[in-house]
TrEMBL record:
GO cellular component: cytosol
TM segment ranges: none
Stretches assigned to the NADPH-dependent FMN reductase-like domain: 1-142
Superkingdom assignment: Bacteria
Xref: Pfam families: FMN_red (PF03358)
One GO MF term attached to the UniProt entry: oxidoreductase activity
Protein name: NAD(P)H-dependent FMN reductase
InterPro entries noted in UniProt: Flavoprotein-like_sf, FMN_Rdtase-like_dom, NAD(P)H-dep_reductase
């Protein structure tokens, strides 16, 4: 099973990529294949038209479409900005639909404050349902992110480590249930 982790923060001095790297390591430790998609390294132009409708789809969008199609399940990582998830993530999501449909998607939100981006997480759940995907009910909220990692980017927050373990367990359960169902459907 292949898991794409999409980092929806490109801010200078950003923090959200740290939990994405942590999750990637944890998933790899469970023997899962991962694809870390960093929108800072793979920038997309502002949406002029979506996949399938654009007369000259930008190459970066084509490549991202292929990577998303190749994933069996996904994790979206986003900071909370002004009470919602990031604009750069929304711009990326708006290009696609079939890349997401019938896939499990886990939500991870990051904030500097104590609430861990709960508003962003709740709103992102709605968007995930709108693209025909299955939003994982358990969300991973990362509060006080500036104190949650060491200088060498190791996770030091016990609270977040515990939340991450539960999130990964739940994510793996849903993602593998859908994956097995699809495999069974193919072999009929
Ligand atoms: C434009 C902007 C808006 C923000 N709005 C919120 C907010 O609504 N709620 C919150 O808890 N933190 C807010 N913050 C603080 C972010 O949660 C914090 O900067 C966190 O590190 C964001 O992740 P990032 O470092 O990957 O950008 C905001 C930060 C920025 C840059």
């Amino acid at each position: 099973m292949r898991i794409a982790i999409l980092i929806g923060s490109i801010r200078q001095g950003r923090q959200s990529h740290k939990i994405a790297h942590y999750l990637q390591k944890q998933l790899q430790g469970k023997g899962l294949e991962t694809d870390l998609i960093d929108l800072a390294e793979n920038p997309l132009p502002m949406l002029e038209e979506r996949v399938g409708m654009h007369p000259q789809l930008p190459q970066a969008v084509k490549e991202l479409s292929q990577r998303l199609h190749a994933a069996d399940a996904m994790i979206f990582v986003t900071p909370e900005y002004h009470g919602s998830f990031s604009g750069v993530l929304k711009n990326a999501l708006d290009y696609f639909y079939s890349e997401f449909s019938r896939k499990a998607i886990g939500i991870v939100t990051v904030s500097a404050g104590k609430l861990g981006g709960v508003n962003a997480a709740t709103q992102l759940q709605q968007v995930i349902l709108s693209v025909g995907a299955y939003a994982l009910p358990v969300k991973l909220l990362v509060p006080e992110v500036y104190g949650a990692f060491s200088d060498t980017q190791e996770l030091t927050s016990e609270h977040t480590a515990k939340s991450a373990t539960r999130f990964i367990d739940e994510f793996y359960w849903l993602a593998s249930a859908i994956y097995e169902k699809k495999k069974a459907a193919v072999s009929i």
